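Subgroup meeting minutes
Present: P.N., E.W., G.H.
Scribe: E.W.

1. P.N. recapped why we're keeping a running log of single-chain structure predictions: easier to compare across weeks, and new members can see raw inputs and outputs side by side.
2. G.H. added today's entry (193 aa).
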Amino acid sequence: MAQTRRPVVEGWFDDGDRGGDGGDGGDGGDGFRLLGTRCYTCGSVFFPPVDGPCRNPACGADGLAEVALSRRGRIWSYTDCRYRPPAPYVSDPDVPWEPRPLIAVELEAERMVVLGQAAPGVTVADLAVGAEVEVVPGVLYEDDADDADDADDADDADDADDADDADDADDADGEDAATVWTTWNWRPTGVTA
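Output recorded in log:
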């Protein structure tokens, strides 16, 4: 079965395939980076990226450039998420919920804190305020082909005459596609799990 990788939110991170310099700033790593915007006038950096004028109330200038954020930062705070988050968070209700730490990471160069989930296998016992972490690619959710087919079937009912329907294309080549929804995670440096 073919898999299609899609970011949960378009434009918030770069998996290294966009052809940039990788922006790794000497940190090493695979080129995965969070993306923000920087004001040309005052130098303020924002995440998530913004369009329009600078959000710095002392500036307000037009002209923001996309920038890759630091790959590494220090834990500012963390907590253990012991309950299944409500919608729009996507999780399989048939699978038992496993607690997952949420980490607030201070990016010193950007003078900001960015929140994200810990990488799989990382527990609160592995974390400490001030410890160094790095951003790594993560998977939020995977749609299996049946989920995608169910969604396509609903589309088919609404749009029976659509000759370009993705479900028809899958049927034509005999292969269904699953979607892997990608995001970012924070992982303590030196951990390869």
